[in-house]
Amino acid sequence: MAPFKLGKENIFHIQIPLLIALVPIIIWGIYVFGTRVIISLLTSVLVSFLCEALFLLIIKKIKEFSPIAPLIYGTLSSLILPVASPIWVFALSGFISSLIRLITYKNTEKAMRINPISASGIILFGLLPQFSNKFTAPFEKLSPFQSIPDDMIVTTILKSIKNGTDSITNSTLLNSFLGRDSGAFGEISTLLILIGGIYLIRKKFISWEIPVSILSTVFLISFFFPTGNCEAIYCASIETLSGGAFLWAFFIAPLPSSSPLTKS
Description:
disordered N terminus, mainly alpha
């Protein structure tokens, strides 16, 4: 049974550390990419709220509505997308993640097998790559509803490495760590994600085994099977520091819908 059922605190108070840890990441995304981040984030969260409320209304359990779940899942499902994605893609992301979570609403066994954020990412990046793989340069301020022209689209460092058109330097690694590179607005700053992750571990919201196992696996596979023309150590470092590995390791994989029941 969930801890909030056994303890004195309700689910909102238990989830507060996650929301606190996400705030600096969101603020940095707004600083780097502008107000379009705010509109995109609010769109995903609003759709998650409506999806949750409509579902509970249909099954006649609207009294069980709580804002915490759609707030968290709507936020996380928007952080994995590039800000250049059309606003409707953010709406679809919030809808898919909430729908999958609600499908497992009455079945804990199934819920333990499906991560709503991962499922949303797989669907959007797999079926709609032309809309969900459009990245712009950092500090390129975008208006909330403008259509992004092709000449503003840039190639991420990971794709450049895999295409053999770029090499890794210490400066590249530093930019990826600090959040001065292109990418999804919630994934660019490894430093802020790491700080938030450490905060969640200190608050016992997540266990260290999950992020450490994921990040070490990414590093080792990238080290022994490097892509492009870069050295193995540089390839492994950039694969780990960019592309969202830290966000998924600290904020998405530890969600109850996918985290393991035992440490082993």
